[in-house]
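One chain given next:
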Amino acid sequence: MADFYVTWDDYHRDIEKLAIQIYESGWEFNQIVCLAKGGLRIGDTLCRLFDVPLAILSTASYGGADGRTRGSITFSRDLSMTTPSLGSQVLIVDDLVDSGYSLKKSLAWLHHKYGFYIEDVRTAVLWYKAESIVKPDYHVVYLPDNPWIHQPFERYETMSPAELAASHQPQPEPAA
């Protein structure tokens, strides 16, 4: 099983493809809930395109030295949102559905905390792995071999601010 590498261009293109797929479905939603961290960029783009409010549910389920160890999922205490209540037609977005465990638990958390507001919930991700126990309503790429996905921003997870600053220092001109 080869790893799956995503460039910034791929990433932005896939977000746009996801937006088109949702738009062409004809489903009208009035709230986006993004699962952070992975769903932040996607949720931000979709809330701008569809002009609907964005709420953020912070979750964490991976850790370890290489960030590839799946553990139990942890949720923030509440949603972060700028509206007085959650919308009734909710689109949950994340970057990928791997095992499906996080998405399944997030749906349960959302129904437990906000179920009295919700009439319909759908899910949207960029990448959907075959091993997932949850099939998202919308996805751009289906990955039958369950590869590890390398996203373009992962380099920041192993870089310090000092290393970033050093990489932006002007290089001396070569001697003539």
